[in-house]
Amino acid sequence: MTTTITAALAGNPNCGKTTMFNALTGARQHVGNYPGVTVEKRSGTVKGDNATMNVVDLPGTYSLTAYTPEELVARDFIVDEHPQVVINVLDATSLERNLYLTIQFMELGAPMVLALNMMDAVKKQGKTIDIDKLSTLLGFPIVETVARTGLGKKALVQKAIAFTREKKTWEPLHISYGPVLDPILSEMEEIIRESSFLDQRFPSRWIALKYLEEDEQVLALGEGSGSKTHRELKRITDKATEKCFATLEVGPEAVIADHRYGHIASMMKQGVVKGAASRQRLNVSDKIDRVVTHRILGPMIMLASLYGIFYVTFPIGEIPMGWVEAFFEWLTNAATAIIPESLFQSMVVDGIIGGVGGVMGFVPLIMVMFMAITILEDVGYMARMAYMMDRVLRVFGLHGASLMPFIISGGIPGGCAVPGVMAARTLRSPKEKLATILTAPFMNCGAKVPVFLLLSAAFFPENAARVMFGITIISWVVALLVAKLLRTTVIKGESTPFVMELPPYRIPTVKGVLIHTWERAWQYMKKAGTVILGISILIWAAMTFPGLPDESADTFQVQRTAVEATLAAASTDQQRSALELELTTIDNLEAQAALKYSVAGRIGSALEPVSKLAGFDWRTNIALLGGFAAKEVIVSSLGTAYSMGDVDPEESEGLGARLTKDPHWNQATAMSLMIFVLLYAPCFVTVAVIGREASWSWAGFSVVFNTGLAFTLSVIVYHIM
Q1: Is 109 helix (H, G, I), strand (E, B) or coil?
Q2: What gap in Å lies between CA 615 and CA 604, rounded to an integer?
Q3: Between β-strands 3-11 and 51-57, what pairing exists: parallel, antiparallel or unpaired?
């Protein structure tokens, strides 16, 4: 039985597309115009393998952004007519330039067969093209052709027909467009999906890209719909344009083009083209890449860069950090003096100021760290790290593209596991995607950083940078080893090829670095003022109620009354000082007893027989339980716990100083806690995202497995130190 197939013949001008069309269809051609435009429409038929293929010769175009009638016609035919296959003709002598259109077809989700044309000219230039490697990297079949002589045309027809019979569903290509545009694109995608805005015709991400590129047709369609979604997308686009010019000094369309060419450059760097091209004079970017992505020098430069971030963070950030801590100490004293002693005073001083203040104290250090990371991103080095790390990640069953979810999650400290897990959508292989999703939460996210900054500065003041660097390395080692374990047991499967866009090197602008740093720091501070504030109050309540039973309170009151009576009769300053200290001790003991009797104290105490194996007392357990909701809460919970019944509650000082004075705490306890916080269950929001991106069973697995692994390693570290 003969089937009929519609194929669109596409390509750049002067790529040999029309010659190929003539070679395929011969005299079986029809010429007319596309409806409503003067652009010529050529179609013809070709037979082969029990099928008749109707070939439509699309106008030559360099891009699918509709700047010309030819580009508009080519795009509309693919979008509206849904050809079973696009035969994309490429000039093999200018492969990188021709692949730009191919990348756009892939972003549109078009099924393709590639005709690598003019291969005779390639050979004359002394070059060879690794067809199999390029086909694997792109994910589409490729045929070598010489349209002028008809070489390869029969194989091309056979490949195209066979390809349509596979009936695969092609997902649109998802490219990262950098730290400026990626969050904006995600926001726009969500709006488009929720409102079903034009997405019956175009993929959601593609619509967002067209808005950023100011595509006239898509903007006209959006405006004609009368939808409020169009106005919202325009508002976001205007904001994105302003941000790009402020931070990168170019518009969004230039950033998008740069990253598309970077994606292509990454493929070329994997040995797709060999021969004469390799002897051509390298440009500055290539010369830099030969050093920073070198097999030996590359990893050394990467580790030095990571260590450099921590090395500058502490000396620069410590001074303003002292200012912030001094401000919250003053605020604590002021609130204590103004508000009468009561539950309300306790909530304000211990719950709100003690909790939120403990977290906000690390904002200066975090801002310095964010600034260093922003510089690396804006320079273009982060993408080179991903490209370079592909060889390492493959050993552990991961994909080169797994690096970006890791980095976003906190591979370079300061990220967040929620967008990191979502970024794993870019992976083609479901098994590599799942392995990435399950291991990304091990990274040193921004929520964990305050804990590590607190403990490293307090217990390892001379080696704080080394400790922070070591924690980051541990997160990578554990993530990779767990990935290897999963990929060799429950998530077995073959690895897929890696393509990573390499954006051009840029000199960061001062304004751009400051804007990016402030945005990240502001997000952190907003979280401290909302999520952390709310959870801090809840934890304060759990640490306050139900309060001591009457008989226990009466016992402390009897002791206090006896000391007060003696104090009234004291005759010397020395006696009065000793009795006042005794009163303070009674108050402190009562506060500690009340805390231990509270709901949180009972839960923490119930866990202590097990947790003490890792060096955690009941107060630490309270903080770790809060960390299941949000890791940022750990520091605030410790701040609350150690301000309610502290060793010396009359003395205002930072949380780090309080911990170092507590006899329970030492370097072993601090290191054990850092390991546990680094690795234990993801926060609640991350678990929910894992459930949505993978399944709820895998989300539950991540909670149980991560916590078990974290506790085991913490016990080992505690006893070794």
Answers
A1: coil
A2: 13
A3: parallel
The pLDDT of residue 43 is: 85
Give the neighbor-by-neighbor strand order of the sheet with 85-91. Answer: 29-33, 40-48, 51-57, 3-11, 85-91, 112-117, 142-144
Q: What is the pLDDT of residue 643?
A: 65
Tell which residue, 389, 380, 411, 379, has the closest CA to residue 299: 389
> Would the CA dihedral through 656, 662, 667, 669 be positive or negative?
negative
Q: Is the pLDDT of residue 286 over 90?
A: no
Instruction: List the end-to-end C-alpha distance of the chain, in Å, as a whole number.
Output: 76
Tokens of 272: 């797709």
Tell me: the pLDDT tens digits for 434-460? 999 999 999 988 779 889 988 998 999
Residues 117, 93 contacting (CB under 8 angstroms)? no
Helices (H), 530-632: 531-544, 550-569, 573-597, 599-611, 618-627
Q: What are phi and psi of 51, to 5 degrees?
A: -145, 150
Distance, CA of 507 to CA of 379 (rounded, Å): 6
Show the tokens assigned to 457. Answer: 């500065």
Classify residue 358 by its DSSP letter. H
Residue 414 phi/psi, 5-degree rounding, is 120, -5
Q: For residues 24 and 14, what is the distance between their CA atoms, to the nearest angstrom?
A: 17
Q: Are 306 and 389 in contact (CB under 8 A)?
A: no
3-state secondary structure 28-92: CEEEEECCCCCCEEEEEEEEECCEEEEEEECCCCCCCCCCCHHHHHHHHHHHHHCCCEEEEEEEH
Here the tokens at position 604 are 């923490």
Percent helix, strand, coil in the chain, to 5, is: 70, 5, 25
**662-717 confidence digits (pLDDT tens):** 888 999 999 999 999 999 999 877 888 898 888 899 999 999 999 999 999 999 99
Q: Running DSSP on this structure, what letter comes out for residue 498?
A: -
Q: What is the 3-state secondary structure (H, E, C) of 442-479?
A: HCCCCCCHHHHHHHHHHHCCCCHHHHHHHHHHHHHHHH
Tokens describing residue 353 = 């100021």
3-state secondary structure 362-404: CHHHHHHHHHHHHHHHHHCHHHHHHHHHHHHHHHCCCCHHHHH
Other CB atoms within 10 A of residue 89 CB: 28
Backbone angles phi, psi at 460, to 5 degrees: -135, 55
Query: Are 588 and 501 in contact, with CB atoms under 8 Å apart?
Result: no
- Residue 142's H or E segment, with its range, is strand 142-144
Cis bond leading into 546, ω under 30°?
A: yes
Q: Report pLDDT digits (tens) over 108-137.
A: 888 999 999 989 888 888 889 999 999 988
Name the pLDDT band for 403 (thresholds 50, 70, 90).
confident
Domains and CATH numbers, the chain: 3-166 (3.40.50.300), 178-280 (1.10.287.1770), 293-544+653-721 (no CATH)
Q: At what angle do helices 95-108 and 69-81 cross, to 10 degrees?
A: 40
